[in-house]
Amino acid sequence: MMNGAATTLLRNVALAAGAALVATLILFTGQARAEKPRRIASINLCTDQIAMLLVPRERIVSLSFLAADPASSAMATEAKGFHLNRGRVEEILPLSPDIILAGPYAARAAVGLLRRLGHRVFELPIGESLADVARHIRAVAHVLGEEHRGEAVLSDFEARLRAIPAPPPGSRPVAALYAPNGITSGAKSLPQSVMDAAGFDNLAAHRGIAGVGRLGIEDIVAARPDALILARLSVEHPSLAARSLEHPALEAAVPKGAVIAVPHHIWACAIPQIVTGVEALANLRGRLAAGGAQ
What we know:
The protein is of the alpha/beta class. 42% of the residues lie in helices and 14% in strands. It has helices at residues 4-29, 45-54, 89-92, 108-116, 131-144, 147-163, 190-198, 203-206, 217-223, 240-243, 248-252, 275-289, and strands at 40-42, 60-64, 84-85, 99-102, 121-123, 174-178, 183-185, 201-202, 212-214, 227-232, 259-263. Helix 2 (45-54) crosses helix 5 (131-144), helix 5 (131-144) packs antiparallel against helix 6 and helix 7 (190-198) crosses helix 12 (275-289). The two termini are 28 Å apart.
């Protein structure tokens, strides 16, 4: 049986997604969908992964090189064998795509030129919450003519959300998110939304950080949070920035066993794989509530 917190979360996700979907389709498609595109090119990591979730491989003529990078992509294994691009016009034009999927920041010059050349370009906005998973899947499914597949993907995602135990009652523990170079995420971000769904308050949001910001090691030591989330890359190369994650002061700043590593690619995009982060943090939250994180 669905718990109350899960019901509330799904209701909020559905309401936000439904309202935002209308605006997204008006803003980013601008017109009724044309014939189902058969040759799809993506030049953005998030649209790469959504395309792979929605359509057969043979309809995708190219993905961005980040799709196959295990440090960046939650679907690097699935991206093996695709033609990869770096968002350059000269790479895309010979592929004769019916549609190009793009994001709001990277390859801006290419997006503008492709449009001026008469190509159909769909731009997906940046994800900021769990509600954006439904919004983004439905928006891309619409332009690719795969609404039925999109709903099936979302059904699986929502089932996993429903299965996550509700956070225990009472005050919420505070977690600090720390990435190399002290990078963190505050309000209006996917990590914040994941932490909130798992029952944690976010130290960065408490400090007034919105989006991407910084927390120094000394900030975490002074705050003494209840848990520490290390945003690691699934493939890391030796660097001073990466070594900062091993600083002994970080682990000493939280209760024993209250440190968890969450790969960055889990919440880099508003895609269904983000539920893995909610599950991991909810599990830690439950252990903390039970009286120990070990």
